[in-house]
Amino acid sequence: MRRILVTGARGQLGARLLQCAEAAGVSAVGVGSAELDITDREAVDSWVEPGSVVVNCAAYTAVDAAESDEAAAAAVNERGARNVAEACARAGAGLIHVSTDYVFPGDAHAPYEADDATGPRSAYGRTKLAGEQAVRRALPDAQVVRTAWVYTGADSDFVATMLRLERERETVQVVDDQLGSPTYAVDLAAGLLELARTGGRGVPTLHATNAGSATWFDLARAVFAEVGADPERVRACSSAEFVRPAPRPAYSVLSPRSWEAAGLTPLRPWRDALADALARLG
């Protein structure tokens, strides 16, 4: 097994990937933004070793902030991604680049396949798609893994927010007109580690989420139910009632077909993963 370098290793996904690697006895090194600024080309070169595999989890993920400062998002999501890919090309290293459902327009009615037409509608989505394209130009053999609705429940993600609001409020309003696939970061990390170890049959673009779909309203009610709270305390509302600076995709379900074609272990149903995540929080 080649050495793994995880960028963005202090984030929710990168940190779980390092934990998975340690549990599996796989040699992995992680660097956060304080240790490696991927917008610094020379710094990236100094970290990438010949023959290694880089899993690029580093990203600008402030979706709303990107609407008013797209240049800051592009610096990391496009230029930083290009720097990593170019460093891997120079070193003869492999690359797994993590991307997002936001590269799609969000107007589908069936799960997005890996080769479906893109069309982001937010600054964040545009910069992530530009990053995918930059990676492809610099390193055609790189693998891009798109995911969606990632959470741990222990950070500042949606599940963690619902846990907090359950304690603080009698009722909570959550949008019920956005559909996606909630994805437990631990399950995604295990999938990325399997891809790094096996190569995934060289499939270039893959989608990885927990199986099934839900609205944010469904997910919030499931969180309440799992902790023994009354799910009726979660009330449905529309996106029009909860306006955000960045438009959210109405439909973000990603098809698992590319993941299965790569011979990789399917991620379990999202409801089972959520129950496990909350049980671990104890």
Question: Could you list some keywords that capture this structure?
Answer:
282 residues, alpha/beta, Rossmann fold, six-stranded parallel β-sheet, two-stranded parallel ribbon, 12 strands
Question: What is the structure about, briefly put?
Answer:
41% of the residues lie in helices and 15% in strands. It is α/β, with parallel strands linked by helices. It has a domain at 4-151 and 181-211 and 253-267: Rossmann fold.
Please write out the topology:
Elements: E1 4-7, H1 12-24, E2 28-31, H2 41-47, E3 53-56, H3 63-68, H4 70-91, E4 94-100, H5 123-138, E5 143-147, E6 150-151, H6 158-168, E7 172-175, E8 179-180, E9 183-184, H7 185-198, E10 205-207, E11 214-215, H8 216-226, E12 234-237, H9 257-261, H10 270-281
Parallel strand pairs: 1-2, 1-3, 3-4, 4-5, 5-10, 6-9, 7-12
Antiparallel strand pairs: 8-11
Folded structure, characterized:
This protein has a domain of 194 residues: Rossmann fold, CATH 3.40.50. 41% of the residues lie in helices and 15% in strands. It is built from ten helices and twelve strands. The strands form four sheets. Strands 2-1-3-4-5-10 form a six-stranded parallel sheet, with helices on both faces. A two-stranded parallel ribbon has the order 6-9. Strands 7-12 form a two-stranded parallel sheet. The two termini are 34 Å apart. 50% of the residues are buried. The mean pLDDT is 97.
Query: How many helical elements?
Result: 10
The CATH superfamily of the domain at 4-151 and 181-211 and 253-267 is known as NAD(P)-binding Rossmann-like Domain
H/E element string? EHEHEHHEHEEHEEEHEEHEHH
User: Taking Cα atoms only, what radius of gyration do you get, to the nearest Å?
Assistant: 18 Å
Strand tally? 12
Given as residue ranges, the uncertain stretches (5+ residues, pLDDT < 50) are: none
Distance between the termini: 34 Å
Output mean pLDDT.
Answer: 97
Helix content: 40-55%
CATH architecture of the domain at 4-151 and 181-211 and 253-267: 3-Layer(aba) Sandwich
* Beta-strand content: 15-25%
Tell me the structural class: alpha/beta
Largest sheet, described in full?
Answer: 6 strands, parallel
Task: Say what the CATH topology of the domain at 4-151 and 181-211 and 253-267 is.
Answer: Rossmann fold
Strand order of the largest sheet: 2-1-3-4-5-10
CATH class of the domain at 4-151 and 181-211 and 253-267: Alpha Beta
**Shape, principal axes of CA atoms:** globular
